[in-house]
Write a structure and sequence with these properties.
By secondary structure, the chain is of the alpha+beta class. The protein has six domains: 197 residues, Multidrug efflux transporter AcrB transmembrane domain (Multidrug efflux transporter AcrB transmembrane fold); 90 residues, 2-Layer Sandwich (Alpha-Beta Plaits); 91 residues, 2-Layer Sandwich (Alpha-Beta Plaits); 55 residues, 2-Layer Sandwich (Multidrug efflux transporter AcrB TolC docking domain, DN and DC subdomains); 40 residues; 105 residues, 2-Layer Sandwich (Alpha-Beta Plaits). Helix content is 52%, strand content 18%. The chain is built from 22 helices and 20 strands. The strands form six sheets. A six-stranded antiparallel β-sheet has the order 14-13-18-19-17-20. Strands 2-3-1-4 form a four-stranded antiparallel β-sheet, with helices on one face. Strand 2 and strand 3 form a beta hairpin. The radius of gyration is 35 Å and the shape is elongated.
């Protein structure tokens, strides 16, 4: 059976088939999303609940414990952690990788509804949940700074104008505004004075609520005309609130300004944001699942001039963190490597075949197979990332093998005097099953990777499938296009004319062949020695495998550093702001740092803060991120009462909990007092280990 015969007989149809494969792959290439690594979705759900004024112990016992007990009945949870602080609780649920995140969300909502009767009756609202993906870091962070506009007004601008328009851009997912709060009027009443006047806090609260009631005013009409009454019964400034009458005592009006301090402020005063040492409002942008990270950032950058024109010119909007810088560099580097590998393969083929006609055939087959693979990647929903492009680079050697095997067998019959068409029919018929068995055996090597489970299987499945798809497309091209091109482009042996370069290279190849024959005879005469060398080589390989350092994924230098500030639990927020400013100023003075943003407060604990540090390009800083972290660690030790933990930002993050370091150690116990007793001891012991830093 000759699989290639119909294609050799119909060269026009075969050419159209090859052109269709080329066009499909080229079009699919433009639609493939770009990412640093394959999209690995971790089914993680975060549940939050708030009870203003409640202590962390109360939140843990009265809110977190009933919810955890109810969540424990949900199938597929492999990790559940909760964090309780003053007035709020966060519970992180991590499910098995094969668990559908939407179905898990419905189960979580059902558990919250079922547990509502066990929660405190004075809970302001039901606990809420949201789906999170800890591996999907923000792709872009914008900072709003100004020397004139106040921070509350900048936050209001970012929240009401910029965030709304940014969320409408193609590819943008979540847009979070931090580092500030909405403008508000804060009234701090004097309880002692209220007690003397006999006025309760409920009376003041009722008066404040009545002053902000936006009720319908009605209309006035006569037989001819009608007028709508437009009156503003809402007040927005502190000076207007000071005149507000809250009660009457002894015939006199008691105004809000008489019993308290009223001032223009913000909703939450325990929040801050810094950009390169200046107060700033931060806009953190995340992409949609599966969106092209580079196109998403490009769309946002293109929209920035228009967005700036919609706000006050006194507000500066700057890009302080751009995740695509290293993504663009890594993808461009692997694409260049792929191109170099294809060129080198073609040059090697030409060096041995020494004819342009014969070299043209694998020169077409290899790029056609690789480009056709993009079409399969698009159908499977894959992306252009480091692993998939690395698979294509590796497959270049496999792809060219098929074309060379078919070409060599057809050339052998040409050397025997056959015409090109006859040689193509006979050579393709003999070698067709061999090429099929070769490709099948290569694909079989990757079956264990395809069947792997867990995170490793999810991560490397795209690599294995892309490589297998490239081999399958190469098989199709080798059985269709390659024999057809051999029949059309190759010439009989007598019709080929060779020059001096060909004859000189022929003598060089004959000399190499003679050397190989001599070395082969020597090896066959010394078989015991050859066997001993083979065994020693295998033993050395086993030793090196045992001795080489092992890990899940190599440590990356993405040009970004994540920082986490941890202070004492009893620190005030004003003192925390001072610590954050000190850390930011120290880090900014380093010669390798380009930008830094930090924020604290908000929905997080008051004694913690976060930082995003962007380093200068590698060709400017000339040192790795780990070396910079080690240098900064010594400088930051001068700040008392707080510690800045830094680690190089990674494209792959595993687990639902945020970590301050590369590794985490969890200490569990039945009694909180025991944990408080043994945690410092364990911490002190771990700090004595020379292998550990930032414990």
């Amino acid at each position: 059976m000759n699989i290639s015969a119909p294609f050799i007989k119909r060269p026009v149809g075969t050419s159209l088939l090859a052109a269709a494969l080329l066009m499909a792959g080229a079009l699919a290439f433009d639609f493939l999303p770009v990412a640093p690594l394959p999209q690995v979705e971790f089914p993680v759900i975060q549940v939050s609940a708030g009870l203003p004024g409640a202590s962390p112990e109360t939140m843990a016992s009265a809110v977190a414990t009933p919810l955890e007990r109810q969540f424990g009945r949900i199938a597929g949870i492999n990790q559940m952690t909760s964090t309780s602080q003053l007035g709020s609780t966060n519970i992180v649920l991590q499910f098995d990788l094969n668990r559908n995140i939407d179905a898990a969300g419905r189960d979580v909502q059902a558990a919250i509804n079922a547990d509502r009767s066990q929660l405190p009756a004075n809970l302001p609202g039901n606990p809420w949940y949201r789906k999170v993906n800890p591996a999907d870091a923000p792709v872009l962070i914008l900072a709003l700074t100004s020397d004139i506009v106040t921070l509350p007004k900048m936050y209001d601008t970012a929240d009401s104008i910029l965030a709304q328009k940014l969320a409408q851009i193609d590819g943008v997912g979540q847009v979070y505004v931090g580092g500030g709060a909405r403008p508000a009027v804060r009234a701090e009443v004097n309880p002692t004075l209220l007690n003397k006047l006999g006025i309760g806090l409920d009376t003041v609260r009722t008066a404040l609520g009545s002053a902000n009631a936006n009720r319908p005013k009605g209309q006035v009409a006569d037989p001819i005309n009608a007028w709508t009454i437009g009156a503003n019964d809402q007040i927005f400034r502190a000076d207007q609130y000071r005149k507000l009458i809250v009660a009457y005592k002894n015939g006199a009006a008691v105004r809000l300004g008489d019993v308290g301090n009223v001032q223009d402020s913000v909703e939450d005063i325990h929040v801050m944001g810094l950009s390169s040492g200046k107060p700033a409002v931060l806009i953190i942008i995340s992409r949609q699942p599966g969106a092209n990270i580079i196109q998403t950032v490009d769309h946002v950058r293109e929209a920035l001039p228009q967005l700036k024109s919609a706000i006050s010119p006194a507000i500066d909007v700057n890009v302080v963190v751009d995740r695509t810088v290293t993504v663009r560099a890594s993808v461009a580097d692997i694409e260049f490597t792929l191109l170099i590998s294809v060129v080198l393969v073609i040059l090697v083929v030409f060096a041995f075949l020494r004819t342009f006609r014969a070299t043209l055939i694998p020169s077409v087959a290899v790029p056609l197979s690789l480009i056709g693979t993009f079409g399969i990647m698009y159908l499977l929903g894959y992306s252009l990332d480091n692993l998939s492009l690395m698979a294509l680079a590796i497959s270049t050697g496999f792809v060219v093998d098929d074309a060379i095997v078919v070409l060599e067998n057809i050339t052998r019959y040409l050397e025997q005097g056959m015409r090109p068409v006859q040689a193509a029919f006979r050579g393709a018929r003999e070698i067709g099953f061999t090429v099929l068995s070769m490709s099948t055996s290569l694909v079989a090597v990757f079956i264990p990777i395809l069947m792997m489970g867990g995170i490793v299987g999810r991560l490397f499945r795209e690599f294995a499938v892309t490589l297998s798809a490239a081999i399958a497309v190469s098989l199709l091209v080798s059985l269709t296009t390659t024999p057809t091109m051999c029949a059309k482009f190759l010439r009989p042996l007598g019709e080929e004319k060779h020059g001096r370069i060909y004859r000189a290279s022929e003598r060089a190849f004959d000399h190499m062949l003679g050397m190989y024959r001599g070395s082969l005879r020597w090896v066959l005469r010394h078989q015991p020695l050859t066997l001993l060398i083979t065994i020693l080589t295998a033993a050395l390989s086993v030793y090196l495998y045992i001795d080489v350092p092992k890990g899940f994924f190599p440590q990356q230098d993405t040009g970004r550093i994540m920082g986490s500030v941890q202070a004492a639990q009893d620190i005030s927020f004003e003192a925390m702001k001072e610590k954050m400013s000190q850390f930011v100023n120290i880090v900014m003075q380093d010669k390798a740092v380009q930008t830094i943003v930090g924020f604290a407060g908000g929905n997080t604990q008051y004694n913690t803060g976060r930082m995003f540090i962007t380093l200068k390009p590698l060709n400017q800083r000339k040192e790795s991120a780990d070396r910079i972290i080690a240098r900064l660690r010594k400088k930051l030790a001068v700040v008392p009462g707080a510690t800045l933990y830094m680690q190089s930002a990674q494209d792959l993050t595993i687990g639902g909990r945020q970590s301050q370091a590369q590794f985490q150690y969890t200490l569990q116990g039945e009694n909180l007092d025991d944990l408080n007793n043994w945690s410092p001891r364990l911490l002190q012991k771990l700090r004595t280990l020379p292998e550990l830093r930032d414990v």
